[in-house]
């Protein structure tokens, strides 16, 4: 049996399955944490929330490696040194999840993301990254402190802060699924061939941008030359591992209810209800 917390080499199929299982388990832990918090067990809820956030951190790392491997040398191993190091380090998992939430890289709100506002309400998670082992244990065990006295799990967390954190952390799975589509589309567009533009199109472009403040004449000349030259098709490597778009004509609701898509399913059902749609019909059920 392999040692725990040591990540072995992974096949493409194992990468997909591992990602699904990590997101499913993170959702299970975070859902249980929310239910425990509602029942008054704040300490245990926080312990489960930290575990759920660690699982989310591993899923984020898998996502980032799938994004990066498209530009790695063909035939590269999926499991690299960064993944191996993260897999064995609880603090690194929490820090990665914290940074992901602060950046809101795949933000899906109606307005722009606000990293500084995110950092403010994520203060609780930032504290978890520093004291993760102690805080996890506080939710499970009764202990004694020389100054404070008896420490019981039920008194181990700030309920309001924890409730706010859980409401946001539960979005990680949905954001990662959105990110899979966003990254795959961006990467495919980045390597798509662009034919040379006609002189008429170049002239129209030059007329349109020449009078724009802040664009120097040399920059306009450069852009026109790029249009004149066009761009050959590029190459994305490691097709079996990298993020891919669904096949044309694929059912956009095919993953509703699937393991690992719990957060996406929840968000899409809520959206369907807001729009007055029957999500079962959309899913073909």
UniProtKB/TrEMBL annotation:
Organism: Mycolicibacter sinensis (strain JDM601) (Mycobacterium sinense)
Pfam families recorded: HEPN_AbiV (PF18728)
This protein's name: AbiV family abortive infection protein
InterPro entries: AbiV
């Amino acid at each position: 049996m392999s040692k725990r917390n040591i990540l072995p080499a992974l096949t493409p199929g194992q990468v997909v399955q591992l990602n699904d299982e990590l997101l499913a388990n993170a959702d299970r832990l975070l859902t249980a944490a929310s239910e425990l918090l509602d029942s008054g067990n704040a300490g245990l809820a926080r312990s489960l929330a930290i575990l759920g956030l660690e699982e989310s951190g591993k899923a984020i790392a898998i996502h980032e490696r799938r994004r990066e491997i498209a530009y790695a040398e063909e035939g590269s191993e999926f499991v690299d040194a960064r993944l191996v190091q993260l897999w064995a380090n609880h603090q690194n998992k929490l820090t990665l999840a914290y940074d992901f939430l602060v950046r809101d890289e795949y933000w899906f709100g109606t307005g722009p993301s606000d990293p500084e506002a995110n950092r403010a309400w994520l203060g609780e998670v930032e504290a978890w990254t520093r004291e993760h082992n102690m805080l996890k244990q506080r939710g499970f065990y009764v202990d004694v402190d020389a100054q404070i006295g008896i420490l019981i799990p039920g008194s181990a967390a700030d309920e309001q802060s924890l409730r706010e954190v859980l409401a946001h952390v539960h979005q990680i799975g949905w954001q990662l699924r959105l990110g899979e589509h966003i990254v795959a589309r961006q990467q495919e567009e980045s390597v798509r061939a662009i034919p040379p533009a006609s002189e008429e199109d170049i002239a129209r472009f030059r007329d349109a941008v020449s009078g724009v403040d802040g664009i120097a004449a040399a920059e306009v000349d450069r852009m026109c030359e790029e249009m004149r030259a066009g761009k050959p098709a590029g190459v994305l490597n490691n097709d079996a591992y990298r993020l891919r778009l669904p096949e044309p004509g694929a059912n956009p609701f095919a993953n509703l209810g699937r393991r690992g898509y719990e957060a996406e399913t929840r968000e899409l059902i809520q959206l369907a209800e807001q729009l007055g749609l029957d999500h079962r019909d959309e899913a073909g059920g």
